[in-house]
Amino acid sequence: MQRHIARTVAAVSGGERAQHMRAKRPEGMVRLDSGTPNFPTPPHIREAAKKALDEGLTHYAPGQGDPEFLQAVCETVERETGAVYSPDDVFATNGASSGIYTVFTAFLDPGDEVILMDPTFSLYAHVARQIGAVPVMVPHGADYHIDAAAVRAAVTPRTRLILVNNPNNPTGVVYRRAGLEALAALCEEKDLMLVSDEAYEKILQPGYGHFPLLAMREHKGRLILLHTLSKTYAMTGWRLGYVVAPPDLGNLLFGVHRSINGPICTFVQRAGAAALRGPQRCVEEFGAEYQKRGGLMHKLALQVPGLRPVDPQGGFYLYARYEYPLSSKEVHRRLWEGGVAARSGSEFGAAGESHLRFTYSVDEKTIAKGMAIVRQVFGQLG
Questions:
Q1: Which pLDDT score is estimated for 308?
Q2: 14, 68, 136, 276 - which has most CB atoms within 10 Å?
């Protein structure tokens, strides 16, 4: 039977991201591909959800979000950036994903452009294409940091947004303050919006600090924050995030979000409020473990012939260049056949070719087992 499929949907349905998500993994495959922390959600967060359930908070939440959660977000933003926002400037989202879709839908007409760093989280380009917009991929500099001059050169009359993912997925690089400030100044000059997805901001390797977008308070009218509790608090399955927007855009963006996603369930938002307001020792403990795991994976990657890993800085991904004349899709396939799942660098943009992304959100035993397979497979590539 022939069916009409929307052109923009058909254009993204066969991409690397979609193929990887649909792939059936053989039993026993070592997973170094997933962005899911292997820690349980901390007890005080789970208890807050149970309490909300016992109190009967199982009906529709207020559309924009539970007041407790929205206020907790505002408190967190002010504490960490000094920027003051009202709950009217915030709305709860389904992880960060529905926030991405909302912001792109609100600002991008068909043919409009959003500038993305290359490589970056593959969902951004996927969503842009699906709504008929154009993702403009701007390669990083040689050190995988923002190349502000290259971004400037990519701006056209159709540019509407610049989006950064900081720390970056897949490279694990934590962007320097100077690069972010240069982008904010460019947005002021060119009348653009600057969006930051800061899902991994609390997961940092020793010696690295994260500069939050909203700390640039002089640019408040041009800044939009996308966030999720998934990574910091091991809450990937809870599907809770938020958007913080300039005061004059909060209602507009929420109106878009409401058309694609109903209210986020109340008991999950109460758990989110407990995460933001409660003890942060869990975040410190998770971070210390990620530091150990990242160090182990990096050390093992250095022992793989032909693999050149980037020093981990933030998040829980190890990004590595390899020196063989094979596409990253082909190397990904060979690793898969060898028994380890990774991500092809080209999934994240053209600049990701000849690279791979591995995750160290798994335990050390899994890291060691997986990297042993990687070493074995790479030994057969030369």
A1: 97
A2: 276
Whether residue 2 lies inside any domain: the answer is no
The CATH number for 220's domain is 3.40.640.10
Asked if residue 258 and residue 310 are part of one domain, the reply reads no
Q: How confident is the model at residue 19 (pLDDT cuts 50, 70, 90)?
A: low
Look at residues 223, 248, 277 and tell me which one is the last residue of a structural domain. Answer: 277
Residue 229 and residue 308 in one domain: no
- Averaged pLDDT for residues 104-115: 98
Rg for the chain (alpha carbons), in Å?
21
Q: What is the largest CA-CA distance in the chain?
A: 62
- Tally the C-alpha atoms within 13 A of residue 93's C-alpha that lie toward its C-beta: 30
Contact 166, 197 (CB under 8 A): yes
Distance CA 174, CA 334 (A): 30
Q: Tokens 């300039």 map to which residue?
A: 246
Per-residue model confidence (pLDDT) at position 13: 72
Same domain for 236 and 351: no
In Å, how far from its chain's centre is CA 359?
13
Backbone phi, then psi, for 341, in 5-degree steps? Answer: -100, 125
Does residue 72 share a domain with residue 100? yes
What does the pLDDT look like over 139-177, one tens digit per residue? 999 899 999 999 999 999 999 999 999 999 999 999 999
Question: Domain limits at 32?
Answer: 7-41+281-378
Q: What is the CATH number of the domain that holds 309?
A: 3.90.1150.10
Same domain (yes/no): 251, 288: no
Please name the amino acid found at residue 22. Answer: R
Same domain, 158 and 300: no
Of 277, 311, 333, which residue sits at a domain end? 277
The token pair at 337 is 């056949």
Of 41-45, 261-265, 287-291, which gets the smallest average pLDDT? 261-265
* Enclosing H/E stretch for 73: helix 67-81
Q: Measure the CA–CA gap between 259 and 262, rounded to whole angstroms.
A: 8
Residues with Cβ within 8 Å of 350's Cβ and at least 6 positions away in sequence, in order, are: 118, 137
| 3-class DSSP assignment, residue 116 | strand
165, HSE (Cβ side, Cα atoms, 13 Å): 27
Report the DSSP pairing between strands 159-165 and 113-118. parallel
Q: Is the bond into 37 cis (omega within 30 degrees of 0)? A: no
